[in-house]
Specification:
5-stranded antiparallel β-sheet, elongated, 5 strands, 20% helix
Length: 81
Amino acid sequence: MTFTVGSLVKARGREWVVLPDSDPELLMLRPLGGTDNEITGIYLPLEKVEPATFALPDPAQVGDYRSARLLRDAVRLGFRS
Protein backbone atom coordinates (compact mmCIF):
# COMPACT_ATOMS: atom_id res chain seq x y z
CA MET A 1 0.00 0.00 0.00
CA THR A 2 1.34 3.46 -0.85
CA PHE A 3 0.73 6.52 1.29
CA THR A 4 0.68 10.10 0.05
CA VAL A 5 2.69 12.87 1.67
CA GLY A 6 0.81 14.35 4.62
CA SER A 7 -1.43 11.34 5.18
CA LEU A 8 -1.84 9.95 8.69
CA VAL A 9 -0.74 6.37 9.34
CA LYS A 10 -0.49 4.06 12.33
CA ALA A 11 2.65 2.06 13.09
CA ARG A 12 4.49 0.96 16.22
CA GLY A 13 1.42 1.73 18.34
CA ARG A 14 1.14 5.43 17.48
CA GLU A 15 0.01 7.80 14.75
CA TRP A 16 2.45 9.38 12.27
CA VAL A 17 2.50 11.92 9.41
CA VAL A 18 4.04 10.75 6.11
CA LEU A 19 6.93 12.97 5.00
CA PRO A 20 8.08 13.87 1.46
CA ASP A 21 11.36 11.89 1.58
CA SER A 22 9.48 8.56 1.47
CA ASP A 23 9.88 6.00 -1.31
CA PRO A 24 8.03 2.75 -2.12
CA GLU A 25 10.00 0.66 0.42
CA LEU A 26 11.01 3.22 3.06
CA LEU A 27 8.38 5.42 4.66
CA MET A 28 9.72 8.55 6.36
CA LEU A 29 7.45 9.51 9.26
CA ARG A 30 7.12 12.14 11.98
CA PRO A 31 5.00 11.38 15.03
CA LEU A 32 1.68 13.21 15.10
CA GLY A 33 2.37 16.16 17.36
CA GLY A 34 6.07 15.26 17.49
CA THR A 35 9.20 17.18 16.50
CA ASP A 36 11.71 16.86 13.67
CA ASN A 37 14.07 15.12 16.13
CA GLU A 38 11.63 12.19 16.20
CA ILE A 39 11.55 11.56 12.42
CA THR A 40 11.81 7.85 11.71
CA GLY A 41 12.14 5.67 8.64
CA ILE A 42 10.09 2.49 8.50
CA TYR A 43 11.08 -0.25 6.06
CA LEU A 44 7.72 -1.41 4.69
CA PRO A 45 8.68 -5.03 3.86
CA LEU A 46 9.45 -5.59 7.56
CA GLU A 47 6.87 -3.53 9.46
CA LYS A 48 3.12 -3.17 9.21
CA VAL A 49 1.84 0.34 8.47
CA GLU A 50 -1.87 1.07 8.09
CA PRO A 51 -4.00 4.19 7.64
CA ALA A 52 -4.74 5.92 10.94
CA THR A 53 -8.33 5.94 12.16
CA PHE A 54 -9.88 7.93 14.96
CA ALA A 55 -13.14 7.31 16.80
CA LEU A 56 -15.95 9.79 16.30
CA PRO A 57 -16.64 12.16 19.19
CA ASP A 58 -19.11 10.89 21.77
CA PRO A 59 -21.93 13.41 22.35
CA ALA A 60 -22.44 11.93 25.82
CA GLN A 61 -19.00 13.19 26.86
CA VAL A 62 -19.48 16.84 26.05
CA GLY A 63 -17.23 19.03 28.19
CA ASP A 64 -17.46 22.67 29.08
CA TYR A 65 -16.47 25.50 26.74
CA ARG A 66 -13.39 26.51 28.73
CA SER A 67 -11.88 23.00 28.65
CA ALA A 68 -12.54 22.66 24.93
CA ARG A 69 -10.92 26.03 24.24
CA LEU A 70 -7.86 25.08 26.30
CA LEU A 71 -7.52 21.81 24.36
CA ARG A 72 -7.92 23.63 21.03
CA ASP A 73 -5.21 26.13 21.95
CA ALA A 74 -2.84 23.35 23.02
CA VAL A 75 -3.34 21.50 19.73
CA ARG A 76 -2.76 24.67 17.70
CA LEU A 77 0.44 25.44 19.62
CA GLY A 78 1.64 21.86 19.25
CA PHE A 79 1.26 21.88 15.48
CA ARG A 80 2.92 25.30 15.17
CA SER A 81 6.09 24.15 16.93
